[in-house]
Amino acid sequence: MKIASDWKDYKILATGNSEKLEDWNGVTLLRPDPQILWPSSSDLTGHKGLHARYVRESTGGGRWKNLQKMPEEWDISYKDLTFKLKPMGFKHTGLFPEQAVNWDSMRDIVRKNKAHYDQPIRVLNLFAYTGGATVALAKEGAFVTHVDAAKGMVDRAKLNCSLSGVGERSVRWIVDDCKKFILREQKRGQTYDAILMDPPSYGRGPDGSVFKLEESLFELVALAGELLSDKPLFFLLNSYTTGLGAAVMQNVLNICITKKRGGMVEAYELCLPTEESGVVLPCGNSAFWTV
Fold this sequence. Notes:
Helix content is 26%, strand content 33%. The protein is of the alpha/beta class and 291 residues long. Helix 1 (100-113) runs parallel beside helix 2 (132-139) and helix 5 packs parallel to helix 6.
């Protein structure tokens, strides 16, 4: 277990009844979380400072319900990084704060090793979303290739880079299907010193094809692993999919990467602290291969 405990602008105020009450730099949101199996000690919906709540619909999906005036967008900072937030579909805000643990680990590796490379360390960020990791790694001096199939999310990542003072020459922006991009990079003979991927549980491609992570993960990791350079640093794999635990992802990386490259894999659950005594909130799993 790794706990993202260094946040100043973000905190979980309370949990219970399958919901979490969060403070995002002064904006208080109430969102569903299926892993919160315990009852709340108070009525979270009646919290005095609550700005908005994400409400599940009986027909599936859900919507945001504003309870008092709040900004449409606002900034949040983590150390020397700044991100733009807004309530989005599927209860998201545009940032996963538990990933701060991984940002710190990857930045530390880049910081300790960049003097040993003749050019900026090349990082491939697949399923890169709004670019939390892209911002963190580029801020540390890496050159990041940011790949996501959703143009809107890539535009959002560009904004986050700008807010954090990351120059345009530090990131290569790609709007594309990640698997197709990997295959093209193999043909081009491109390599990367570090790779990370945060694939969705489920998705549908522009051609109507259906993506299910359990069926596609091993192939994706195996293909991406072929893009590692002769001086690889790390391969980070994240999952928020029920059933894909840390040990499962550790096995995948060991088979696809460690057997060929050596090194080791650390697997762990990502968690966030809460303001409640004795309660930490599990948020996903990671497996981290390093040389």
